[in-house]
Input
Amino acid sequence: PADVSLWFELASKRIELMRHDEVELAHRLTERVRSNERDAVWEAVLGIVLAMAALIATLLVARKLAIDIIVPLRRVTLGMSRLAQGDQDVYVESDWRSDEIGDMMRAMGVFQRNMAEIVQAQAKISGQAMVRRKERYQRALLDSFPFEVWLKDIEGRYLAVNRTLAENMGLSDPDAAIGQSDETLREPLLAAALRRSEQEVVLSGLPRVVEEGAPPIAGGPPRWLE
Output
């Protein structure tokens, strides 16, 4: 019985030690699991924070690109398209940039100035062509009248003369009378009479019909003009 009691006591102590070890192991395992869980949570939180930071950084970079590159490039593209269509009222941004977009802005400004010069030159050429056409039409209209037709300025200088009057004054080219007055083209008495008559019309603002004598042509009979 003493041996059985001793064995039982030793077995009980052994079982107690094993149970204590199991509890200690379970406690350590539990702590390890909890520690791993905490680490996993922190890693997850850190991953989320890093992902958010990367997303924010990406958005900031995208915004920077949009402000510095995409938007100016789109404006330049639209501006060039409007200039190519002949629109002169295109705002060209300042050329303070030193990159490729700045070069495009400066090129756009040069293109706009060149186009403005071309348009002005075309308008000038068109205006000159219009003046020449008007002169031809005026000449054709004046020369269509069988009687004398002329236009003078306030000083009595001829601005336009039809061919009938030029021939009556002994001129082969009607343009030869342009800029001259009756004092250089007519007899003195006739020139003075015409000048008085014209001044009366200018001062009164009323039309006037006069009869005047004109020198004969090539030794022909005297002529009277109204």
Notes: Helices lie at 2-84, 100-143, 163-168, 182-185, 188-204. The first strand starts at residue 150 and ends at 152. The beta strands are 150-152, 158-161, 212-214, 223-225.
